[in-house]
Write a structure and sequence with these properties.
one-carbon metabolism, S-adenosyl-L-homocysteine hydrolase NAD binding domain-containing protein, 7 strands, binds 1,4-dihydronicotinamide adenine dinucleotide, alpha/beta, Ado_hCys_hydrolase_NAD-bd, NAD, Adenosylhomocysteinase-like, elongated, 36% helix, two-stranded parallel sheet
């Protein structure tokens, strides 16, 4: 691929060369938000057949995944409460989410988000599911061990706390997968072709490669890019052909 640029950074510690594709811009910008939003709704409806309109949906985590899951639920007519810890992404942490929500979705990538104490505060028939990090966000063990809530209320846990957008449906749309999986192919080709080119450690894909992956999908969306003029490019400190963001810019 033309326009290879230097690797972003290398972290010592590993004994082998590795490429972190999980934090690629195209994954964060497309795959994470767009991958989950439709299958989450599909999964909830497929598994429970509830009407989402009029329900209160509480989404834990206000990142790429959380924001889009919240938007999708709102699109179906739910009122949304979002909880968060990050002052940039989420200005509030709402304990009442567990008490008010009919539908609770974890999207944080963090552990211990919905615990026994939260289950005990939930509304009757609350639907609880996770689209974040595998199975650590919801304390399923507590639920199994307590075999029903003391207050006599019920809740519905989807896919045993694992990813509901995958477990309850056919998975993420293939177009979205296609904006992320080429990163893995590019990384594998690089590792195979140039094992001696980079120092041992964890590297990131260059921005230019991410841009190429994204650009390959634009025609399907009927998007045509505007080209920087010869005057604009140097004004912005860029090449007309990219990369269009500095390496330090994180999405
Ligand atoms: P992100 O970092 O953009 O968002 C996570 C958000 O959760 C952040 O705003 C963070 O401040 C917040 N958070 C962390 N701990 C919290 C806590 N204790 N309480 C409330 N909020 C908390 O990450 P992104 O891209 O949204 O990904 C989130 C998770 O979703 C990751 O674990 C990722 O692997 C997973 N994921 C799942 C997919 C699926 O198909 N189900 C697809 C893509 C990502």
């Amino acid at each position: 691929m033309a326009g290879r640029v230097t690797w972003l950074r290398s972290i010592s510690g590993l004994k082998v060369l590795a490429i972190n594709v999980n934090d690629s811009v195209t994954k964060g910008k497309f795959y994470n938000p767009c991958g989950c939003q439709e299958p989450l709704i599909h999964g909830i409806k497929w598994a429970t057949d509830v009407m989402i309109a009029g329900k209160v949906a509480a989404v834990a985590g206000c990142g790429h995944v959380g924001k889009r899951c919240a938007q999708a639920l709102r699109g179906f007519g739910a009122c949304i409460i979002i909880t968060g810890i990050d002052p940039i992404n989420a200005p509030q942490a709402a304990m009442e989410a567990y008490q008010e929500g009919n539908i609770l979705v974890t999207t944080t990538g963090c552990t211990d988000i919905i615990l026994g104490q939260h289950f005990e505060q939930m509304k009757d028939d609350a639907i609880v599911c996770n689209t974040g990090h595998f199975d650590v966000e919801i304390d399923v063990k507590w639920l199994d061990e307590n075999n029903g809530l003391k207050n006599g209320l019920c809740n519905i846990l989807l896919t045993e706390g694992q990813l509901a957008n995958l477990g309850c449906t056919m998975g993420n749309p293939s177009f979205v997968m296609s904006t992320s999986l080429p990163n893995q192919v590019l990384a594998q080709i690089e590792l195979w072709s140039h094992p001696d080119k980079h120092p041992v450690g964890v590297h990131f894909l260059p921005k230019k490669w991410n841009e190429a992956v994204s650009e390959a999908h634009l025609h399907k969306l009927n998007v045509k890019l505007t080209k920087l003029t010869d005057k604009q490019a140097p004004y912005r400190g860029l090449s007309r052909d990219g990369p269009f963001k500095a390496d330090h810019y994180c999405h």
